Amino acid sequence: MGNPNKISRRHLLRNAAAIAATGAMESSVLPASQAPASSSGKNDGRPRTLALVGDYAHNCDAIRVSLNRLFKELDLPIDYTTNYYDLSKSLLEPYQLFVCFRDNYIFPNGRSQGFVNSEFWITEEQGQAVKDFVTAGKGLYSFHSNAFLSRSSKNYRDVQGGVGLNHPTLRPFKVRVVNKEHPVTQGIEDFMVTDEQHYTIYDKDPKNILLHGENLDGLTFEAVLRDPKEGGPEASGPPQNLGTTSISGWAHEYGQGRVVFTAIGHTIHALWQPEYLKLQKNAVRWLLKMT
Predict the structure, then answer these.
(1) 53: closest CA among 88, 25, 29, 22?
(2) Which CATH architecture has domain 9-287?
């Protein structure tokens, strides 16, 4: 007889699947090129969200588990897609909020040679679709690696408001609330997190910056900055010291709509940090003009 206290890998996977399914009760995955039957963007009077998720470094199932909790606790429905090539005006039309949690890279020929074989997926037409969506009064919630999408589309960068530069590996840092008056940060205290500390540029009014990340151990970050305008994803040059402090979040009005970016999110542990989870709820409510 086997050890009754031993937990098999199959048992763990089965339990993980059950947990994920429980969290997904108010969510659905869109078939390619299909939106909900309703064109109102509402479900029983509730605004509906579309999330484009998953890239080479961020598993789409892990993102779904995390966002399912967020939207379940808000009692709001959410649909998911991984089909970046379907992003368009018609796909977004039924929704009130677009969540984007993926970066700008695809690897049609695999990753055996790293970024040498990478391509950028977003087109300026797709960037324009997101711009028009927000301008018309809808919301964009940009998570974590999505800041890098602005490297590949001027239209997307214009609405998102900034761009990702680079990041070190996972390490502890403190997230400080630098604008305590904004609805997104109401009631949020500074918090510690172990995550990728993403370094970003914000293009618009500095008063819209909500969060800074600070490495309390004094660790700086040196990186060769990758920017298509500077030579593509493998741009070379001397490393730049980006210091100990990074811009970790912002929020601004765009046309009649609203935009939020938060840089934390490489792991579920980070996404579910209690203060950060509260902030995400505030962000969704603000983006949907529920507050």
Answers:
(1) 29
(2) 3-Layer(aba) Sandwich (3.40)
